[in-house]
Design brief:
alpha/beta; three-stranded mixed beta sheet; globular; 5 helices; 219 residues
Length: 219
Amino acid sequence: MNITLLCSDVAHPVMPWLQRWAKKMEKKHTVSILNSRNQLAGGDFLFLVSCSEMISSEYRSLYRHTLVLHASDLPHGRGWSPHVWELVGGANHLTLSLLEAEDKVDSGRIWLKKRIQVSPDALWYEVNELLFKAEIQLIEEAVENYKDIEPTVQPSSEGGSYYRRRTPEDSEIDASLSLSEQFDLIRMCDPDRYPATFRLRGKKYRLKLEKADDEDDSH
């Protein structure tokens, strides 16, 4: 089959996972990894993975199936960065949904869902690994079993919710509160792409969190 993976950001941390999967599948399928909708040429499957572009029906019509990976238990958590909002809010698991792309964001029929347990001490990169692994598993399951999958229609209104796009202000730490009170926010801040910051004594600082359990504390 001819499969396209569309990811808008060439530097997104999911890219190595997509590249490894494409390499793994090269004897069975033709897999292309693209970064812009203007590059879409058609095929059997188009998977939208961390895609920030709107894919209109004109582009979707080039493919037999156009599917979106979205890290929430739809219809709950439509919108932007749902897994970050969920974990910052204290969740101990994520649900990854694979659904059909439609003009209305995150409203299409659902093909598959996968629940992901997340440890309360997992940092942003560890959460990424769990999420990206699950995304590859759903992509592979859809490709291999698409004939047996029966998509389900989302409820039109019941149980739906929407997350707004996160801004740099959403990663700002309150210096007057304890680390414990804000740990879920701090641990989900990617220090390179979405760093945690705080203001103190007239200056703004960046905060980088790393695990030190295995380091020698004798000094």
